[in-house]
Amino acid sequence: MINALKKAFFKGLVILIPLVLLWITIRELVELLVAFAEPIADALPAGSFEWVRNPELVAPLLIVFIALLLGALAAIPFIHRAGSWLEQNTIGQLPLYRMIKTFITAFLELEDAASFRPALIVDDEGGAEPCYIIEDRDNNERVVVLVPWSPASFAGSVKVVSNRRIRRLDITFDEFSLSLANFGLGMTELLEDQEGTTDARRQ
């Protein structure tokens, strides 16, 4: 009887704890969205949102609207060039800004994402170590990579590795980082169809 109660208790914890953590995460995310939207609302004419009773509902819509507007403006060539010049000569000089922008660009998997691309560092024995390509310039014999720790998949050691040892992977940033955050669980499945991994094993 005691063992049955103990087993039921632990099973209940396995269900309850993730649900509570999920609720806390959602609540914190909503508060973050509201805090993120406040500077945007402050830039608009005074009294624009006095009628709003639930800022939690308006904040995501405001963020989406502003993001779409800025994205549409950035698609105009001369505005894009002017914005890039202004960015490079102002906030683009700040290391923290560059780091955040690089990470977000990789996370959203935008076409111009040049950093945090999933790859493997292949050794001479056929083994492979997961990494992110941070800098890979054309006609360069070396590649700058980040070898992540687990479960802290966005922290690790920066290395300069020979280009011939790098196997680039056709895996999304989200899938790759999620596997690393889970101590590599699911990595085998992700790599099943990777031609680079198969070639590395045959060497």
Q: C-alpha Rg, in Å?
A: 23 Å
Oligomeric category: single chain
Series of secondary-structure elements, N-terminal to C-terminal: HHHHEEEEEHHH
In CATH, what is the class of the largest domain? Mainly Beta
Count of helical stretches = 7
Span between termini: 57 Å
Low-confidence segments: none
Assign a percent range to the helix content: 40-55%
Largest sheet: 5 strands, antiparallel
Strand content: 15-25%
Do you know the CATH architecture of the largest domain? Roll
**Helix/strand/pairing category:** alpha+beta
**Average pLDDT level:** 78
How many β-strand stretches?
A: 5
Give the SSE layout.
Elements: H1 2-43, H2 55-74, H3 77-89, H4 95-107, E1 117-122, E2 128-135, E3 142-148, E4 156-162, E5 166-168, H5 173-181, H6 187-191, H7 195-202
Q: Would you mind describing this structure in some detail?
A:
The protein is of the alpha+beta class and 203 residues long. The protein has three domains: 2-74; 77-107, no CATH class; 117-202, SH3 type barrels, CATH 2.30.30. 54% of the residues lie in helices and 15% in strands. Strands 4-3-2-1-5 form a five-stranded antiparallel β-sheet, with helices on one face. β2 (128-135) and β3 (142-148) form a beta hairpin. α1 (2-43) crosses α2. The longest helix has 42 residues, at 2-43. The chain is flat and about 65 Å long. The termini are far apart.
